[in-house]
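Task 17 of the worksheet. Students: predict the tertiary structure of the chain below and write it out as structure tokens. Keep your answer in the requested format; marks are given for formatting as well as content.
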Amino acid sequence: MIRKTTQGNAFLSGQLTNYYLTITNGGVNVATNSISYSDCNCHLSSTCVNQFSIYKNDSGNVTLFDVPGLYIGCYVIEALLQSTLQCFYDQNCIDELQVYLTTASPMNATALDPSLSSQYSENSTIENLLNSLMIEEWNSTQIYDRYYDECQPIECTYTIKTRNSIIYIITTMFGIVGGLITVLKLVVPRVVKFIRKKRSRLSPSNIDKTKLKVFCDV
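Model answer:
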């Protein structure tokens, strides 16, 4: 989100790697001009990159050393994420870098060993390493004793999922059937009695007597 916001708002990099300023009219007007890397313009994309190179001090056009796997671009973070550790697997590359590093104390660095077992390769990008948190393998061993020692919980509850036995299923079915029989014994007689009362009220003999009484009154 921060990277997209930075690109969308065209924030000016502190190293002026995405835009450069042009001052005109005696310092009255300041214009921003986007920088391009390998036919990719920083105004359109924040992921534009070029090979990282070391140039001669008195001339920016004379290349002294191209550092394999490292890039420069519109933003330092974007270029870093696209870079790899290729140079750091090569002792000659590291030694060449130390030649051009102006440090008071020389750095005694040893190249990474490519023969070691790893899920990452020399060409794995820094972004891939960060997405995996630079972890080779997750250890899923569950050590509950350490958990209790570290967390010291006051109370703990747990749930055990098991399959019901055949005896439990049979007894449950008998219980359900027995309950249904009891309910039916209570409900069915009352329903039958209610229906009989309704039918007795509407029997033909009662209807005929009612009609006869009406005719006599007329």
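Marker's comment: Residues 210-218 have pLDDT under 50 and may be disordered. The first strand starts at residue 19 and ends at 24.
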